[in-house]
């Protein structure tokens, strides 16, 4: 929608007259999607002398209804007197102000806006006009809510898909007598699902490694035999999921033929430490079993050990799996990724 | 868990409220494996309420979403009937409304052992005692 900018006759004050010289700046101000107004600083109450199209669209007013008004007419009456005082002070003191206020559209509908107010000075430093721009925070909030809802929905569907996969596995292998293999398969899928669940709760941001390890180890029901401790280390989703799988595998093996077997009273120490190395930091994960059955390296490379090597490779670190006579020791050392906190 | 069936020939009766049959069957298998008897599954709110009214039930595993319906009326009926229950959900348990936060909730999928612990706790804390 195009319009000319001369409204002098309709307004008591000097309206910015731009029809003679449509400079790129004026055109930009008029056509930008950022709602903005200029006010006349020399007149009492600093009335609006220019309002762009985006401002009119945001507030629902026509230009003639806006010009000459003190722009605080937009504020929801009686609400947030602190903001109103701050605006008045900024206008009178010629200061910048950034604040959020509740505004009312012509339709009566309220919205929260972030307002930025700044004085426009002439060569002598005298404040000639005030410039105010608005961001519709209510709309931003709604967008954020929508995104949050979508993430929740996607997480929900991922969990449901994994639950269904587990159910299919169970139904498909119903008559199969090798219950141990079925349990292994289900355990791995569950470990993955645990990781997904925790990451989903954190909107797939980095999460605390200890939380994941705790979640994965808890179903084994051996809190009294597993010591889990360490520093607060946050890791990105990919590393978290692999750690979940690796630790699940270590625990499963320990239950089958290691320190957590029912025939022994062994223990496992799981430590995640953040270590400073000159100017860099590294993460040291250590799984150490003791008091278990004597262990010996398996004949072939198992899923867990392959996962562990894969994890170390993914994270640019090193992994070591030792079959010590006292019990299995697994150590993963990796540098802290730059973007990681 | 493996011998539970022999130890408890007549295990507690657990109502399954779950709209997805594959998942309902999986829960059924978990429960029978743990030595429980299964009531249901109920796939809709009305059906679940009917079962609560007619059947003898010791505890329930209740999915939060039943084909687009929320299962809170089922929870209310269980509370009224004095039957303890666990919410079972694909969502984060933190998303459950405040009024229902006090009930135990498990995020699907869960291990047999987790379900076992949760149900044992539920049945032991039941006022009438099992």
What's the structural blueprint in terms of helices and strands?
The complex is a heterodimer of chains A (341) and B (130).
Chain A: H1 24-31, E1 36-40, E2 48-51, H2 53-59, H3 63-66, H4 81-93, E3 97-104, E4 110-121, E5 127-136, H5 137-172, H6 179-201, E6 207-208, H7 209-217, E7 226-230, E8 234-235, H8 237-257, E9 267-277, E10 280-290, H9 303-314, E11 318-324, E12 327-335
Parallel strand pairs in A: 7-9
Antiparallel strand pairs in A: 1-2, 1-5, 3-4, 4-5, 6-8, 9-10, 10-12, 11-12
Chain B: H1 4-7, E1 13-17, H2 21-33, E2 37-42, H3 45-54, E3 59-63, E4 65-66, E5 69-70, H4 72-81, E6 85-89, E7 105-107, H5 112-124
Parallel strand pairs in B: 1-2, 1-3, 3-6, 6-7
Antiparallel strand pairs in B: 4-5
Helix pairs in contact in B: 3-4
Q: What is the N-to-C succession of helices and strands of chain A?
A: HEEHHHEEEHHEHEEHEEHEE
CATH uppermost class of chain B: Alpha Beta
Radius of gyration of chain A: 32 Å
Which strand order do you get reading across the main beta sheet of chain B? 2-1-3-6-7
What is the highest CATH level, the class of the largest domain in chain A? Alpha Beta
Number of alpha- plus pi-helical segments of chain A: 9
The overall pLDDT average of chain B reads: 84
Poorly predicted tracts of residues of chain B: 1-8, 125-130
Choose one word for the global shape of chain B: globular
CATH topology of the largest domain in chain A: Heat Shock Protein 90
Structural class determined from secondary elements of chain A: alpha+beta
Biggest sheet features of chain A: 5 strands, antiparallel
Q: What's the total count of β strands of chain B?
A: 7
What is the gyration radius of chain B calculated from CA atoms?
A: 13 Å
Output mean pLDDT of chain A. Answer: 84
Strand order of the largest sheet of chain A: 2-1-5-4-3
Distance between the termini of chain A: 48 Å
Largest contact between chains: A-B, 27 and 19 residues
**CATH architectural name of the largest domain in chain A:** 2-Layer Sandwich
């Amino acid at each position: 929608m195009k319009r000319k900018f001369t409204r002098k006759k309709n307004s008591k004050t000097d309206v910015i007259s731009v029809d003679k010289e449509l400079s790129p700046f004026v055109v930009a101000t008029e056509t930008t999607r950022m709602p903005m107004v200029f006010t006349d600083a020399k007149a009492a109450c600093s009335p609006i002398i220019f309002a762009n199209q985006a401002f009119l669209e945001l507030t629902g007013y026509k230009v003639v209804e806006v010009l000459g008004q003190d722009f605080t007419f937009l504020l929801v009456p009686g609400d947030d007197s602190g903001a109103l005082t701050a605006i008045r002070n900024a206008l009178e003191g010629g200061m910048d102000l950034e604040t959020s206020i509740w505004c009312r559209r012509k339709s009566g509908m309220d919205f929260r806006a972030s307002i930025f107010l700044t004085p426009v000075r002439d060569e002598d430093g005298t404040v000639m006009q005030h410039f105010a721009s608005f961001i519709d925070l209510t709309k931003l909030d709604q967008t954020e809510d929508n995104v949050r809802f979508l993430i929740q929905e996607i997480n929900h569907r991922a969990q449901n898909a994994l639950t269904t996969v587990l159910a299919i596995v169970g139904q498909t292998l119903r008559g199969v007598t090798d219950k141990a293999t079925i349990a292994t398969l289900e355990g791995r899928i569950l470990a993955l699902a645990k990781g997904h669940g925790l990451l989903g709760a954190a909107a797939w941001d980095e999460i605390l490694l200890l939380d994941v390890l705790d979640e994965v180890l808890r179903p084994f029901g051996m809190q009294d035999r597993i010591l889990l401790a360490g520093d607060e280390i946050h890791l990105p989703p990919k590393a978290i999921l692999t750690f979940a799988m690796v630790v699940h595998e270590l625990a499963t093996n320990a239950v089958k033929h290691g320190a957590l077997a029912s025939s022994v009273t062994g223990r496992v120490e799981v430590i995640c430490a953040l270590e400073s190395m000159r100017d860099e930091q590294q993460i040291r994960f250590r799984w150490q079993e003791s008091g278990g059955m004597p262990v010996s390296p398996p004949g072939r490379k198992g899923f867990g050990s392959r996962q562990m090597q894969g994890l170390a490779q993914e994270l640019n670190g090193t992994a070591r799996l030792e079959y010590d006579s006292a019990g299995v020791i697994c150590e993963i050392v990796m540098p802290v990724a730059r973007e990681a906190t | 868990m493996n011998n539970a069936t022999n130890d408890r020939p007549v295990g507690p009766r657990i109502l399954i409220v779950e709209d997805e049959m594959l998942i309902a069957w999986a829960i059924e298998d978990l429960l029978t494996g743990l030595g429980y008897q299964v009531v249901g599954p109920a796939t809709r709110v009305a059906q679940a309420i009917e079962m609560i009214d007619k059947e003898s039930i010791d505890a329930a595993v209740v999915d939060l979403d039943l084909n687009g319906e929320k299962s809170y009326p089922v929870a209310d009926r269980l509370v009224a009937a004095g039957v303890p229950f666990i919410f079972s959900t694909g969502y984060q348990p933190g998303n459950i409304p405040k009024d229902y936060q006090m009930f135990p909730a498990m995020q699907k999928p869960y291990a047999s052992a987790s379900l076992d612990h949760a149900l044992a706790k539920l049945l032991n804390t039941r006022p009438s005692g099992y």
